[in-house]
Specification:
2-enoyl-CoA Hydratase, Chain A, domain 1; 2 domains; ten-stranded mixed beta sheet; 24 helices; 21 strands
Length: about 650
């Protein structure tokens, strides 16, 4: 039988080398894409399953049980802030990785834990370990110190231990009954200083950048580094005036807490070289001689002391029964009533620089912060509002947007009380001035009622490399604001007129809000910075007090009755369900272990951590981005932090 053999298919056309290369490259890209998608899918699936297991475990086991005779260990790590600047995912991942450099501690949480411990019969004593706390200013520290004083007044023992403390950390440690310092440690009080770099020579002489400064207020020194080589006499005069007031209060607070003499503390600083030399260069011994600490003990010796006073527990850190700050915070949160129909005093936090637009927490956006205030106005359960301000200021228009919302709240029949934190200056005062009452700590930094604008010009810089700008325009001012061309003096007149108008608006609004004449406001304005105590003497602040005092005042104005008749609610941007899931997973023991032992957290954190803004970046952005086509942007900003 004959068998027919099918014909062979024709040979494929031979690819040239270029086509073969691109086809091979495409195959590799497709394979890589599918691999990455599969890894992401299975990674997210694993996270979901692990999170469900962790949640189930937490539900089954419940929160950590608080036993009798427990020692509460307060060892906050990170910057003390009014409001978290990072989103929940970033915070949880940072914690899981042990990255303390970017962690933050909310002031409200710190105080809330201390206040809860004051009345908690199961908390026998409180241990303060403050070496990793990064304070921001003395006003917020004094609020924490006041809470610690109330704790001691209830008979709770407070003991502090440190390996080395800054003078800011020491202000809190001084509130303890006993302070123990490692024999190799130090506590050094040195006073307050404020020094900045000045760039005029580098910008103008070296680089050829001419910075044109337009301002009103002889003390408005925010932009001096760009046009001078050293601080002006007016800036030094104003800074030293409020700094001396804040420093003297610090000495008085420490002296009172430690039963010392403030003059003796000041003398110890003035004779610091002789004192340390007499102590043989031993900083710990010097601190002991100055009576800044009770005794010198190593960590092991301190833990032994706490074990003897408390309840021994071999499974606990330190060998004594204790609970940490985060666990205790979770414990008191678990006792909250999720359904609370009482009328509300809303707290809106305005923390950070003031800029236009919708900004994340930790910064103040003209639109985003205004939206939070509108939410309080539209919510029938909210009867009064406290605006907590901690800001050096920023853009004029964004500040005015927020001020208008404060006025709208008052027009709706809801009183607004401002509580100033460490800093409420310039634009920070702009958004505060219309409140029914303004509270500040005597060490708050406020005022700086002034305004400035800054325009860099790079014509000489370009000339150095042989680049020149030329062209034509249909009018005299077409292209006149181009920074690559030498500035026309007439343009300077226009800008200065805008700045003058801004200052008139600022002082005029302050005069109206504070029931003063414009002349009286101008006397305390001119861009000058004041401490809270100095501001109260000059009628810019109504009363001394912290957030608690402001809340009580707002509730009283709304006639809400005693403290248990209303609740305090923070109005903030809501957290997405995904962020809640990831932060909850990272906060679990399983999640913390997995993220801490892998590189996944570092990758995710790098993608979610917000950019850190600096004062220089703020000015740079403001100078570069005029926004909405406006050739001039007025700024109300104060470089007056410590």
């Amino acid at each position: 039988m004959n068998q027919t053999v099918p014909p062979l298919p024709p040979p494929l056309p031979r690819r040239n080398a270029v086509a073969a290369f691109f086809i091979g490259l495409w195959d590799v890209m497709n394979f890589t894409r599918r691999l990455i998608l599969n890894l992401l899918f299975f990674g997210l699936l694993f996270l979901l399953l692990a999170g469900l297991v962790a949640v189930a475990g937490m539900s089954a086991g419940g929160s950590k049980t608080l036993q009798d005779r427990t020692t509460l260990v307060l060892a906050p790590e990170g910057r003390l802030v009014e409001q978290f600047s990072a989103d929940p995912v970033s915070r949880a991942l940072s914690k899981a990785m042990g990255d303390t450099g970017s962690t933050e501690v909310q002031l409200r949480d710190f105080i809330r834990v201390i206040e809860a411990a004051r009345d908690d019969k199961k908390v026998e004593r409180v241990v303060l370990e403050l070496d990793k706390l990064q304070p921001s200013g003395f006003a917020s520290l004094r609020e924490v110190a006041a809470a610690l004083q109330d704790l001691r007044a209830q008979g709770k023992q407070v003991v502090a231990f440190s390996q080395s403390m800054s003078q800011s950390q020491y202000l809190l440690a001084a509130q303890a009954d006993e302070i123990y310092l490692d024999p190799m440690g130090s506590v050094l009080l040195e006073g307050l200083g404020r020094y900045r770099q000045y760039f005029r020579t580098g910008l103008q002489d070296k680089l050829g950048v001419d910075v044109h400064l337009f301002k009103v207020g002889q003390y408005k020194s925010a932009a001096e580094p760009y046009v001078l080589d050293a601080a002006s006499p007016q800036a030094k005069e104003a800074d030293l005036f409020w700094m001396n007031d804040v420093w003297q209060r610090y000495l008085d607070d420490v002296a009172k807490a430690r039963s010392l003499d403030a003059a003796q503390l000041a003398a110890g600083i003035d004779t610091l070289p002789e004192g340390i030399a007499a102590a043989g260069g031993d900083m710990a011994k010097f601190a002991l001689q100055q009576k800044l600490v009770t005794a010198l003990k190593t960590r092991e010796e301190f833990d032994t002391l706490m074990t003897e006073r408390g309840v021994a527990d071999d499974d606990a850190d330190g060998g004594f029964r204790n609970i940490g700050m985060s666990d205790y915070l979770a414990h008191i949160d678990a006792r909250r009533n999720p359904v609370d129909a009482r009328p509300q005093v809303a707290v809106v936090v305005a923390s950070g620089e003031i800029s236009g637009g919708d900004l994340p927490a930790g910064r103040i956006g003209g639109e985003s912060t205004s939206a939070l205030l509108r939410e309080a106005r539209d919510d029938d359960k909210v009867k009064a509002v406290v605006l907590r301000v901690d800001s050096p200021g920023g853009e004029v228009f964004a500040s005015e947007q927020i001020r208008r919302e404060v006025v709208a709240l008052q027009a709706a029949g809801k009183p607004v009380v401002v509580s100033m934190g460490d800093l409420a200056a310039s634009g920070g005062y702009w958004i505060s001035m219309n409140a029914d009452r303004i509270y500040a700590d005597p060490s708050t930094i406020t005022g700086s009622i002034g305004i400035f604008g800054m325009v860099p010009n790079v014509a000489r810089s370009l000339d150095k490399i042989g680049v020149h700008t030329d062209g034509v325009g249909t009018t005299r001012f077409a292209g006149a604001f181009d920074i690559t061309k030498p500035m026309d003096p007439a343009v300077g007149q226009v800008i200065q007129a805008v700045i003058n108008k801004g200052y008139a608006d600022f002082t005029g609004r302050v005069a109206e809000a504070r029931n003063k004449s414009i002349e009286a406001v101008d006397e305390v304005a001119q861009g000058r910075v004041w401490s809270g105590a100095q501001a109260k003497e000059r009628g810019l602040v109504d009363a001394f007090g912290g957030l608690k005092d402001a809340v009580a005042d707002a509730a009283d104005r709304a006639k809400l009755g005693k403290q248990d008749a209303y609740r305090v609610r923070y109005i903030e941007k809501p957290t997405t369900p995904f962020a809640q899931f990831v932060s909850g997973f990272a906060g679990s023991h399983a999640g913390a272990w997995m993220l801490g032992e892998s590189g996944m957290a570092r990758l995710m954190l790098a993608r979610t951590m917000p950019e850190v803004d600096t004062q220089l970046r703020f000015v740079e952005n403001a100078a570069r981005d005029q926004g909405n086509g406006a050739p001039v942007k007025s700024l109300v900003y104060c470089f007056c932090g410590l």
